[in-house]
Every structure is written in C-alpha cells, then in structure tokens.
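seq:
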Amino acid sequence: MARVAEARRIAMTMAQAEGLAGDATSNAGIVATELSTNLLKHATGGEIHIASLSDRGRRGIEMLSIDRGPGIRDLGRCFPDGFSTAGSAGTGLGAIRRLSNDFDAYSEVERGTVLVSRLYARHDDAAGLPPVVVGVVTRPVASEEVSGDAWAVSFTQAGAILFVADGLGHGPGAADASGTAIMAFKKSRDTSPVPLLRQVHAALRGTRGAAVSVGALAYDEGSVRFAGIGNVAGRVVDARQVKHMVSHAGTAGYEARRFQEFSYDLPRSAAVIIHSDGLVSSWSLDNYAGLLSRDPALIAAVLYRDATRGRDDVCVLVAKAREPL
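struct:
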C-alpha cells in the first residue's frame, strides 16, 4: 500500500502546483488512491502516469492508469455504485468518473484496461480551450532514470504544432540532446515544419544529436504538414485509411541533407500519432475495436502498453480535434 500513498501524495502535490482549489486537490488524491487500489486488487502489470497539463494548454492534472489484464468484459457495469468483483463497496470507478472533469476508459478481455482522469484548475468555456486535445505517454528504458525521448506542443489558431525528439542512444546524454531540441522548438516563432527543423538542427550541434519530427495540424483546413529527420514516425489515422508521413534519413545536429515538408489530408475524425522508435512500426489501431474514437490519452496508452520494444526509451504523442462542448 506504500505505492498507493505515494501516488496520492504526488497527485495532490501536483494538483496544488497546478492551482487546483482545495476540494479539487483532495479529489485528485482520491482519484489517485482509487486508481492505484484498483490496480493492486484487479490488475496484472499495472502502472499509473501522473502529469501536469500546463504544457498541453490548460492548467490541471492527468492521471492515466494502464494495466495488462485481465480486462473487463462489460465496462459499463462497473460504474454504478455497488458493483464489485473483489468484495469491496464497489464505489471505485464510479467515484473516479464523478470526481473527474474529463474521464474515459477502454478495456478488452485478456489485453487489459486503460483509464484517464483529468481535473482542471477551473472550468473554461469552449472558446478558451485549445482546438486540439493531446495525449502522451513517455518512459525511459528500464535501465535508465531519465528518458532520451521528449515532446512538446504549441497551439495555433488553426490547430497545433506537435514535436517529438529522440536523443541518440539513451540516458543523460540522450536526454540532454532531446531537451536542447525541445528548448529550440519552444523558443522558435515559426509555425512551419521546415524552418523549425532547421533551427532545431542548428541548436543540436555540440550534442549527440537526435531524430526529430514536426507536425503542424489544421483540422479546420483539413490538412497536416509534416517534416522529420531520422526515425521519429508519424501517421494520420482515421476509420478509412492510414497515411504514413515521410521523414528523411539523418540525425539533427550532425547530418541532415534534406529538409522537406509533406502535406496530408486531415479529416476531423482522424488522429495524428507521432512516436519514437521505442515503439514497433507494425502497430495498427485496426486491432482495437473502437479505440480510434476514444480519448487521445487512451490511444497513446494502449500503443505504449502493447507495442513498446522494451529496449529503448519510448514516447507516443496522439492528437485529435476537440469535440464541441
């Protein structure tokens, strides 16, 4: 139970730092406790990711629960108070959903369950929200404490600019390279992929270098512009087709011969997924019924859970158009 207490403490500390009110901070602690307790009671291979939402355009906290089984056959039955498979009061999932400002869940028998809960510092009207919702999972390889993979997002009037950097190798040197790339991205005022890549390439000289990719999303215009150097992959995924976005060979900071932008159609129902090579390239959302329609964090979590290579850092970044309130 020590890990349950640790998750609760981290959630409440982060909620306070994000400016959540007293009741909301307490709610964050309750959600973290319920998620952790559920993993201990029911799950195989479970983990919780707790993250600030400030770098996604809104102050708040996200808690993402990921497990590898046994899964839930009828997820809808688990939310009314009183339902339990472990002899408890049966208020866990119902309480999590009630206390969350945003909540979503996805489960398959044998594969496992993923849950996302978000609590915000304040309630915004639709006009003040970013036009794109972003979900992300990142984790260092098991032998390291820091990840060489990093990500960032900036929002525009048309949509968002997504950025993923994979520092060469792993460990502190890789983390330094990807961190330098993120700083260059955040400092830039450009919104076009090629100028951004050129600035990142220049900033990375003197580091061990990185693979980097940029995707500029404009859902209202129905397009995404993409450019990359190295093996950070991007896809546009909707119910009809999958488009693999093109990245040129090279290493930003060392050798990058071609900086080229490609444009792809972006239906409003599509997800844009950018990930490091810590994820296998053979993944397909076709293997997960209904997952494309779920929260971007759940898509990222399922891909992380089921398609991670296990011998490298991993970063999975997923973006979708915000649904009208």
